[in-house]
Amino acid sequence: MSADLEGKTALVTGGGKGIGRAISQALAAMGAKVVVNYRSDKAAAEETAAGLRGASAHKADVGDPAQVEAMVKSIGRVDVLVNNAGAVRDKLLIQMSPPDWEELIRTDLLSAFATTRAAIMSGMMRARWGRIVNISSIVGLTGNAGQSNYAAAKAGLIGFTKSVAREYGSRNITCNAVAPGYVRTELTTGSLTDDMVGELVKMTPIKREGTAEDVAAAVAFLCSERAGFITGQVIAVDGGLSL
Questions:
Q1: With 80 as the cut, is the pLDDT of residue 233 above it?
Q2: Catalytic position from the list 38, 150, 168, 182
Q3: Burial (0-12, 13-18, 19+ Cβ within 10 Å), 172
Q4: 182 catalytically annotated
Q5: Which domains does the chain have, with CATH numbers?
């Protein structure tokens, strides 16, 4: 893999497990010094960081702007930001409580506001270079029964992505989104039965499940120099499921 990110610092929120781990590994392979953010699973974050040259694990609840500011201040300048941290609270709308809605929006959407604002102010603007990638979902494009809170947050990330791209493109800061389809991770395990996953595969033109590495490859490209003229875009990594 290229060394496009040699000497640059990359912050990956929720970077210790699943898709976040794969993204951390891909950016490290490009030469970045990766900060693996975590909220609760210290062991997974430290294990991921230990396997990457120059990486470190950093605890912070990215849904809390004060914790985000403290984290970014301790890191220094963030050159690459991947907003990957997320949660699910699946329920039908009439069964969903206000806390179910508020907690999901805080974790999946407010977090991106807090981290992006802090990263841009940390030195991206002065350096006139930055890469921001938001991990959305095809649910943010299509909606899904039982996931109105998750769909709203992931759709909000797409609008946020396009607005940030317009605001900071003149500073050579790109902002894009990646929208994965179903990827079997710690977050999604148990949300679908094997039969349901099988039906999804049947509906997917490429006829297989996605992997964390599939998503990480798209993120790595968007963080590379080759993607310097791409901003405000949404790349669905779903095998064609959302076509």
A1: yes
A2: 150
A3: middle
A4: no
A5: 9-182+211-237 (3.40.50.720)
